[in-house]
Design brief:
The complex is a heterodimer. In chain A, 46% of the residues lie in helices and 17% in strands. By secondary structure, chain A is of the alpha+beta class. Chain B is built from eight helices and no strands. Classes of the chains: A alpha+beta, B mainly alpha.
């Protein structure tokens, strides 16, 4: 007790006092010290008031009912779903390899097929793929106005396209695949607007461009589906209310790598840290 | 799996509060919380057994927030900030005025200072837990905390203008 009060008062005592964590045996010494230093005492009083008020003010957030999407049960269910989808993709990759090894295999025209479902479930073609390829063909050749809104205004671009499509959108970062975002534009879609993000690589130009087409699509989620036409290949998929199609003049495996990267970023919960989180795990204790 | 819910869910209000304090945007904050929980679920078996679950979750929240800022994805700057998002003050109370100023002033501070004030002053992390979260010695936490408090006090008392981040 006495020892506790004899040690000189330090910064740590003051902070502990403000946080209401000062050990009782130090209280007297600290009180005495502050009584002798009125200016510091006043500062401590303000700091304490600020801490308490800040906490009181923020308490209303903590007091709210927890949204159901944050329930652990909800998250576990989503996780299982995502896991099954990943398994599906992995199985599909194996299947693709097998198919690719087969001689003379070729996709002709609009013969889109579904990877995962297998023969018992014929794969309906996603309209996204044909629309996206058509839009790709029209706009990648543009030299003057390939995009409506350029990447310089990326925040505005994403906000604008999100509003038009009616869903929060993101332009995935494909720099890991060598593509830089150029910008985007609004396109007509079945009922609503669709968005097209355009990327390019190397020295640019039509042959080096890639587009990501996004539109609202309320149907059930799908695995990747492949389609090609006129020398352009597309992977399309539906995820969480949005239909996507990635188009480029690439062969299937090369496009798949980009599609996987885009998919990974796009399926991360909106607000978007998952890609960085998976690539560079945060420090956790 | 029921015990996972029992372990994690009691801390969701605190994580939401911290996330909101960082982002000042309800949806974005809940997105962050969701990321935190997903990560916590996938890393549950890797957590440090000697740290409290709450401190662990809050640390994940901070790290994911920082990753997001680095990626340019989770910047409050790009989000419209609605006045209704700020908890309504009770009229007439001077103390509330201070707190409202404090909430605003917090926005003008560096993330590290903000997080220190929030994690220790609001979320009750122990100094040791904070030291682990920030990966610095406990003594360093004390002096940084002291500096952060001085800065907040100056911002509030000096009436320095801290414009709310607003887009559009």
């Amino acid at each position: 007790m006495q020892d506790g009060n004899r040690r000189p008062v330090g910064e740590d005592d003051i902070e502990q006092l403000i946080d209401g964590r000062l050990p009782p045996e130090r209280l007297e010494a600290v009180r005495r010290f502050l009584a002798e230093h009125p200016a510091q005492q006043a500062r401590v009083a303000v700091d304490e008031a600020l801490r308490i008020e800040l906490r009181r003010q923020l308490d209303s957030i903590a007091a709210e009912a927890i949204p159901s999407r944050l329930r652990v049960a909800t998250l576990l269910a989503r996780r299982n779903q995502a896991w099954r989808r990943r398994l599906g993709t992995a199985a599909a990759a194996v299947a693709l390899l097998a198919v690719g090894l087969g001689a003379g295999w070729q996709v002709r025209g609009w013969q889109a097929e579904q990877w995962r479902a297998g023969p018992q479930q014929p794969a309906p073609r996603l309209a996204e793929a044909s629309d996206a390829i058509a839009a790709h063909r029209v706009f990648v050749v543009e030299t003057a106005h390939p995009v409506e809104v350029g990447v310089a205004q990326q925040a505005h671009l994403v906000q604008w396209l999100s509003r038009r499509v009616g869903h929060p959108l993101r332009a995935p970062d494909l720099s890991g695949q060598g593509y830089r975002l150029m910008g985007g534009r609004v396109l007509p879609a079945e009922r609503e607007a669709a968005a097209q993000f355009m990327y390019e690589r190397g020295e640019g130009g039509a042959g080096n461009r890639l587009t990501l087409y996004v539109c609202a699509d309320g149907r059930a989620d799908t695995a990747f589906r492949f389609a090609d036409a006129d020398g352009f290949a597309a992977f399309s998929w539906i995820d969480a209310g949005l239909g996507f199609a990635l188009v480029a003049p690439l062969d299937r495996p090369a496009l798949l790598a980009v599609a996987e990267a885009a998919y990974q970023q796009l399926t991360a919960p909106a607000g978007a840290t998952a890609p960085s989180a998976t690539r560079q795990p945060a420090r956790e204790h | 799996m029921a015990d996972l819910a029992a372990e994690l869910e009691p801390h969701i209000p605190a994580v939401r509060r911290y996330a909101w304090s960082l982002l000042r945007h309800r949806e974005a904050a809940d997105d962050l919380v969701q990321d935190v929980l997903e990560r916590a679920i996938s890393r549950w078996h890797f957590r440090r057994k000697d740290a409290s679950t709450r401190a662990w979750l809050l640390t994940i929240a901070r790290n994911l927030f920082l990753n997001g800022v680095r990626q340019g994805g989770r910047q409050g700057r790009h989000m419209p900030l609605d006045d209704s998002e700020v908890p309504a003050p009770e009229p007439g109370a001077d103390r509330t005025l201070i707190a409202r100023d404090a909430l605003t002033a917090l926005q003008g501070m560096r993330e590290e200072e903000r997080s220190l004030l929030l994690l220790i002053g609001v979320e009750d992390l122990s100094y040791r837990e904070a030291a682990q979260a920030f990966d610095v010695p406990e003594g360093t936490i004390m002096s940084r905390l002291s500096r952060a408090r001085a800065r907040l006090r100056q911002l509030v008392e000096g009436g320095e203008r801290v414009p709310l981040r607003r887009v559009k």
